[in-house]
Amino acid sequence: MRTLTSEFLRERMAKGVRNSKRDAMSYRGITLTTGTMPNAEGSAEAVIGSTKVLAGIKVALAEPMQDTPEEGNLTTSAELLPMASENYDIGPPTPEGVEFARVVDRGIRHGGILDMSKLFIEEGKVWNVFLDLYVINYDGNLFDAGTLASMAAIATTRMPRYEDEKVVRDESMKRLETGNIITSCTFGKVLDELLLDPDGAEEELMKARLTVANSEDAIHAMQKGLGGSFSVKEIDSLIDAAFEKSKELRGIVKRSIGD
Amino acid sequence: MKNNDIKLISNGKRLDGRAPNEMRSMKIVPNVVKNSGGSAYMEWGKNKIIAAVYGPGEALPRHTANPDRAVIKCRYMMAPFSSSEEHGRVGMNRRAIEISKVTAEVFENIVLLDQFPGTEINIYIEVLQSDGGTRAAGITCASVAMALSGIPMKDLPYAVSVGKVGEDVILDLDKLEDNYSDADVPLAILPRTDSVALLQMDGEMTKKQFNDAMAMAMEAGKTISKLQKDALRSQYIEQEQKYR
User: Fold this and answer.
1) What is the DSSP string of A42-82?
2) With an 8 Å Cβ cutoff, are B124 and A82 in contact?
3) Do residue B39 and residue A85 have CB atoms under 8 angstroms apart?
4) Who among B52, B130, B131 is closest to A83 (CB)?
5) What pLDDT, on a 0 to 100 scale, did the predictor assign at position B104?
6) Domains and CATH numbers, chain A
7) Predicted ipTM?
8) HSE of A258, CA atoms in CB hemisphere, 13 A
9) Which of residues 94-123 of A touch B (CB under 8 A)?
């Protein structure tokens, strides 16, 4: 099966055609919808091709971390739901799932999106923002879909209030203040070609992967994955491509959060 | 929990304005998970649920296989962000394990298991947003997903919960009613034979109240069954138009 797909892709790529008829540096169709789960404080669904990732935000009262007594916390988890792919199983998080959650977390955490000191309530009490990623259907490039969904969900999160020692969730909750808009671009090295937004079939053949999460003017997180490697020159060009492509993604985020 | 502080019914109307025998609004969208054999998304009031079916495939681990028939495995799980209250614990709790078991058993009644010896059929139910009655919605939705996956079944089960507030029998309890009602009875019905494939109950009911509740569920089933069949039909109409 694998050889068949591989041969098919090889033949097509020799003719300069990608699996889904796009060029090397373009995305599949993207949709980003916010507020899909109103019970959550924030939510968004990102669809890239047939990859579908849902991000849900709940905010809860917590104790601060020992090393940051005057800051709130962010906790990111990801579920590669068994319904999302034949290859996902029931059970504890796989290394693949943990990497996914951590890469998205790094872009969000270090992207200047949240001011953690604003999540401080009083001594010994802070808000903990729980970001949960749900992969509903897998067809490659979870990282970019996860970052898009997370960014849009956080930017539309409505914060509960702490009143009379109780957490109040009601109609008059205000939007969480956010700063930068962070998006990520993931590139794969597939049959020695560099491709943006690899789909599921391309990921099967992917030797190396690079994710760049950036704002308008700075890189905030990167992750190189898998057994292959990139030359320094390749990385340099991919970072340029990420800055260029992220304009498109930032536009999608802005539209979805109503900015 | 007894209804002491909250009046769930007044002047024959429930808190959300429904009559005692009125269901919340519902919607079923077929085939939402492309990789699965069959899937469906269901909104039942504020509940939002996805069910997907994989299989039949090799039963793993091997000792779970039955040489005479297929085994059905179900996982029902609630998303940590599904509730309007606190962040939920990640993973399966005892409640989810029980619901998964009784849901699998509903489908053991009707799937032609002996056609696929040694295999497993997986049902995944993910509750993305919850507002009471998620197991009923999960079964109703999984039923559509199973049919879309092409696995032969003798019937198309539906589920609904009935209950009691004071002396009134009510249909389709939402979360608040579930928490404060005097009885709660989730049911799954096989409509061709009107047999009961799932029945759970807690609270307090007389025999007559139970019979009334049962009749109410069967009546509601006509609406639910129609919605399920419409969702299935819409899929085939779409396919037909595509290839015409």
Assistant:
1) EEEEEEETTEEEEEEEEEEEEPPPTT-TTS-EEEEEEEE-G
2) yes
3) no
4) B52
5) 96
6) 23-257 (3.30.230.70)
7) 0.81
8) 10
9) none
